[in-house]
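Researcher: Please generate the 3D structure of the following complex. Treat every line as part of one assembly.
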Amino acid sequence: MPKNMHYAILEAIQGEMRRDKHLTLLYEYQRPSAGWKGRAIDLEAEFGRPRVQFCAIDEQWIVGAALGMAMTGVPAIAHIPSMATFIPFELMFNHAGKLRHMTGGQAAFPMVLWADMATRAPFQGGQHADAGLESAYARLAGLKVVIPSTPYDAKGLMISAIRDVDPVVFCHYPMPADGPEVPDEPYTVPIGEAAVRTEGSDITLVGYAPQTAEIAKAVEELKKEGIRAEFIDPRTLAPLDSVMPTILASVKKTGRLLTADEGSYTFCNAAEIVARVAEALPGVKIKRLAFPDAPAPGAPEMIQHMRVDAARIAAAARKLVRGSG
Amino acid sequence: MTHPFTPRAAPVGTRSGPVVRVSRRSFIRRSGLLGLGAAVLGHGARLALAQHGKTWSDQLSAEELIGMYRDMLKIRLWETKIKDLMVQGGFRGVAHLYVGEEAIAVGVCRALRKDDYIASTHRGHGHLIAKGGDMARMLAEITHKATGYCKGYGGSLHITDVRLGILGMNGIVGASHLFAAGAAYGIKVRGTDQVAVSFGGDGSLQNSFFTSAANAAAVWKLPWIAVIENNGYQIWVRTSDVCSPVDLARRAEGFGIEGRVVDGNDVLAVYNVARYAVDKARGGAGPTVIECKTYRWYDHYGVAGARFGVEGALGLWYRSNRELRDWMAKDPIARFQRFLESEGVLAAGQAERIRTEVAKAVEDAAAWAAAQPVPQPEDGLRNVFAHGAVPLRNV
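Model: Done. Output below.
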């Protein structure tokens, strides 16, 4: 049993807090503690207040304080829950992303917005199942947006995010403990580097958390049928420029692009990837799967009908490769 | 016509309530009470001065007082120059003029150390000058020149010098409070004795940035001071028409924060209350909200109603000329000058000499700024991130 995502993230932060005596974590209710194989991380017990601070239900404070600290040289992590994704949006949009530019390079925000993200889970309904909001942050100038899909990437990307002098939105979807084992030691996964999860030559599948689990299943299913899919997880959504070469090289090889996104169809992040591929490689076959432009219903019958899953990805891939599902 | 927040008589019960009106005279009268409060709060060492009939402004040397006078004049004449340039036309920029409110920036910043932080507003030129900003580089910035403070990226609304502890002028109303409170939290993390001051207008208490800042500052006793520059108008609407009719500083009470109201056109009164709040914050006794009643002589932004060589913007649709004249008669600089002359701090003719010197410095700044190069067009693609440039997308 490998370390899970939560443990991997806390291990990253723990190492960085030991490295930098000012690094501060503000959070709301998700206590920064976790156990694994008899080992335990408890950041509050280890570092105490004010460096690890349980705050009021006030995402504006948590993020605003992180920005005020970061601008005065105290690096900070602001952890917010998944239903509050947009409460600090104004701060990230008009301040974190702009002040370096507005001040001619004087201001810096070494901060991480650790945003828990909602999945398309049943029995939630609307406000607690609205996945895909990372695309809104990825659209903002001056922000970096990372979206790990494995515990290994989560730890490495969190360390990169903390060490980055620019503000980083760390989108944390709860993903299964798959992928490579997470070393105890600190290591980085560079921001702006896509991962080729599976190599193939018939079709390029692009998707990030939380769709990666469904895509991985679809890849296995397609393999049994003789379709070799190449699966790319961009891991970084902004700036997208540095991950595009990997995607473009793959689509150039396969001639086909299928994207799967848990977010709503219009303006989902995959839409941007599709646009860039279409612009760079005219004539390739493209299909985009996503959630409809609707709130997520709570009843399982409804939401299952609407979301993207492995079977639908496989069907769309078959259609692109063979001309029929 | 009077200002909608013309100071009234002190409310009954101020002894028990945290809101205290402070003018220079009443401050001296109340200083004994403050000294007692200081002992209770455990930060009496500095406050003890007040127990012996001396206020903080009494401790200022003649040189310091003249420095304050000079700073106020710098703001006045620098901004008046901007106004005249704008009236003349062809000005490469915009401006929200601060003229009329100079006593607040100077009174507050004089109470600060160089390593203290301030977070400013869209009407923030005065704060920057009072914190030590360079008038020439400021003028270059508001005309978007390559050698301006922000290399031409920011302009009037966003001039800043991070090295002076200025967290930026900020065009989003109220954000200054949150930024300064965040900086104050960072001070707590680092364990220094700095303080962080946010300036904000009367409108800056309306959205929730202030609320988030005040709650956290109160509960963790952060070294945060919010200075509310109540000039009576939120853009073009009277604050008394859109806000419940209480002193804005009273809103601090709900968070358990001491709120104080002061005549914002009295630089020494502002200094005294700021010094009280700063010493309290440095001593670990937490935040203060200071409401300064004042008035802006020009329009919300730009120069509507303004004329070359004439002070004040007349004929604005949302306020009367008499109201403006009433407040111009309470000019904080003329008032301070009269006081300094009556005290013998300024000798006969000295004020005029200082004015001439400052006016020359402003003209020199303007001449320097006018001769500065404009930025390279492709620089707009830089400084998005710490490294590199973003690609151009229109080709």
